[in-house]
Amino acid sequence: MRIYGNLNSFRSSGTGARLQNLLRGRRNSSASQVAKATMSTDLSSLIDGNKSTNSSTGTSSTIVSETYEKIGTTAVDVTAHANKLLDTGKNNLFDEDEVSNDKAVKEIKNFVEDYNSLVSDMQKSGSKTYKTYANELKTEVVSSKSDLDAVGITCKADGTLSVNSDKLANSKLSDLKKIFQGSKSFCAKVNEKCTTINKRAALDKAISSFSGSTTKSAYTRRV
Predict the structure, then answer these.
(1) 204 and 121 in a common domain
(2) Distance between CA atoms of residues 194 and 129, nearest Å
């Protein structure tokens, strides 16, 4: 009876209610702590995820920038060979006093080698802009097809050039001069196009280096 009376007294005094509220508060506090810990874990994962994304973006941006640089550098190499072939000064490669065409043939082969590298790099870049440039160069080759064929230079399906070394070596200087010297020649048109490509590549490289958000996928969608 005494125990029962004490229990009723405990209930009536309101102490029981306060104890229940205290216990409920502790349970809520524990739940809150668990929620905070869970949220902290989620935020940490999100931050780490963003770090990974940023790291990946940086890598992609670097790849894109290097691609532009390579295209620009190769375009410059092509123009360097083209300028030697186009030169009309004294002792130029197609000088009528030359006993053989060895010097001209050597420079033409260097021109073709770098031309092929440039076309391949632009085709592999994934950029619509540079694929268009590659197709424009191919158009120039097709326009001069008969003259190029006559000296052993042919266009392959991928837009690169193939050289028949024996046929090229046995070609007349006058035939080579027709293709590689003169403001309206095949070489002059390629030279002009490569100058444009180099300028565009330099601009694109600068933009991709400046923007940390440039990604490989964005690059491949370029127009």
Answers:
(1) yes
(2) 13
Rounded to two decimals, what is the model's pTM?
0.69
Per-residue pLDDT of 169-201, as tens digits, reads: 999 999 999 999 999 999 999 999 999 999 999
Residue 20: domain span: 2-46
Residue with tokens 């295209």: 71
What is d(CA 131, CA 119) in angstroms, rounded to the nearest whole number?
A: 8
Sign of CA dihedral 140, 168, 81, 111: positive
Residue 99 tokens read as: 């006993």
